[in-house]
Each structure stands twice: as structure tokens, then as C-alpha cells.
Amino acid sequence: MSLLAALRHPKRSTSILLTFFSWYFLEMPWKIVRSWGEYIRTVGEIFSFIFLLKTFVKPWKSITDKYPDKGFNIGIIAQAFTLNCTSRIIGMIFRSVALVIGIVIEVMVIAVFFAILIVWFFFPILVVMDILLLFETI
Predict the structure, then answer these.
(1) Does the predicted TM-score (pTM) go above 0.85?
(2) CA–CA distance from 66 to each of 17, 56, 84 (Å)?
(3) How far lies 120's CA from each of 31, 33, 82, 108, 132, in Å?
(4) Helix (H, G, I), strand (E, B), or coil: what is residue 122?
(5) CB 3.0–4.6 Å: which of 15, 74, 91, 118 could bond 60 by disulfide?
(6) Which percentage of the chain shows pLDDT scores above 70?
(7) Contact 51, 104 (CB under 8 A)
(8) Residue 113 neighbours by CB under 8 Å, 6+ apart
(9) What is the pLDDT of residue 10?
(10) CA distance 15 to 9
(11) Domain range for 94
């Protein structure tokens, strides 16, 4: 039996239409949301936002200088304090840059996701409008 003959039968065409609409508007959007959720989670893991926030004020590469245990030498204490503060500031700068880049990429991924989802829902309407426009211009 040909496809055209199968579509001519009213019960079959109704069943095919219902199956198509169920697939197009229920199943596939859910699959799109799940797959893009994985992309969003992956970007979050690549930039490891939680780790960056937990270690935000930690020294860069754990570069620190110990304070003297014995005696009071203001020069050595100032040197250790300066190195420790500088290392923390450098760490904060690098982590801030990584956080900003990660957030920008995350926002871009979410924007692309919403664009794809909107195009998915409006594509049938656009196809019908294009067909009507095609017949109108002929």
C-alpha cells in the first residue's frame, strides 16, 4: 500500500496527525530541553563555578610566604604580608575573569537554547505561511 493510500483513510490520517502533533509539541521539546540542560550543566562543570566561588579569596597557586615563628622582624612580616595579599589579589582577578567568561558563555548557551526552542515551535507556522505566500505569488 502506498503512502498516499494510507493517508487517504480518515482513521489513519487522524492517527498519524495526532501522533505527529504529540511528537512535535510534547516529545521533541522535552528532548530539546533535556539535551540543552546537559549543555548548560557541561558549561557549568567546565568553568566549575562552585569551585571558583569557594576558592575566590584563596592565594593564586597557593603561593604564600610564612610569617616568622620567632622574633619580631617588621621587614619579614611586611614582606610576607605583601606577598600573601598580592597572591590573593591575583587569584581573585583570575577567578573573576574566569567567572565572567563562564557566565557570558552560559548566557550565550541559554540564549541559543531559547532561540532553537522558539524556532522549533514556530517552524510549522512559518512553513504554512511560506506555502500560502508561494501560492499567492503564483
Answers:
(1) no
(2) 74, 21, 9
(3) 12, 12, 56, 18, 20
(4) helix
(5) 91
(6) 91
(7) no
(8) 32, 36, 39, 40
(9) 61
(10) 10
(11) 3-137
